[in-house]
């Protein structure tokens, strides 16, 4: 039984699991908080759950206690595997542990739909993993929702609206294909060791189709080019994409003198459509 497992601080001491900065580790030891994070993912019954960077397994326990059909825990740090194996022994057949780099593992080889991804992501790979999950070869993706811990600054970029300093490429990538919200915030003191910044949990629910029609590769190119020079007017920032960029901007209702941070998602999608099949 999960309730019979020892406290996380005892597990960390027994297995010598001091957090390693090189692995982006900050352990969340309060089981009340890990249970709250698991609840943000919704009803886990009948779902497989992918967890990246479980560490000593606090969130892993909460996901299993929350009724997940199966949890696939991908952990790079070999020191954590014995602690996770203790959880697996308490939940026969429901926890699969894979030691390795989450950037290199084909999770779907181990999972069955429906799949939710729930993780206190290591800070050093969190954004890269998110971008991969949001920009798969085909949509809808293999997952139905993402419930992820980030630095507060990254979380605010994901949910930012036009006109704010946080609004940018990550905002558009997330909001084009998902409903995104900040589900909860956590202070540095909630972690061991405490990071230098506050953290937040973001919940992203996959939409059946993108909000507005656009070719993903073209939209990504237009948005990346626009925000790479976000202080410039769009007619200057995007001039390398097409000689008639001012006419294209005007045709979709964007003033050529506007800056990227003030252009809403639907207008970026409309601009991407003016390029047809390539840019």
Q: What do these coordinates show?
A:
With 279 residues, the chain is of the alpha/beta class. It folds into two domains: 205 residues, 3-Layer(aba) Sandwich (Rossmann fold); 58 residues, Orthogonal Bundle (Helicase, Ruva Protein, domain 3), CATH 1.10.8. Helices cover 34% and strands 18% of the residues. The protein is built from eleven helices and nine strands. The chain has a seven-stranded mixed β-sheet, sandwiched between helices. Strand 5, helix 5 and strand 6 form a beta-alpha-beta unit. Helix 2 packs across helix 3 and helix 8 packs across helix 11. The longest helix has 13 residues. The radius of gyration is 21 Å and the shape is elongated. The mean pLDDT is 94.
CATH fold node name of the largest domain: Rossmann fold
Rg value: 21 Å
Instruction: Tell me, rounded to a whole number, the average pLDDT.
Output: 94
CATH architecture of the largest domain: 3-Layer(aba) Sandwich
Overall structural class, as computed from helix and strand content, comes to: alpha/beta
Main CATH class of the largest domain:
Alpha Beta
Q: Could you give the count of β-strands?
A: 9
Strand order of the largest sheet: 4-3-2-5-6-9-7
The helix content is: 25-40%
* Beta-strand content bin: 15-25%
Biggest beta-sheet profile: 7 strands, mixed
Number of domains: 2
Cα separation of the termini: 56 Å
How many helices? Answer: 11
- The gross shape turns out to be elongated
Can you say what the CATH homologous superfamily of the largest domain is? Answer: Vaccinia Virus protein VP39
Low-confidence stretches: none
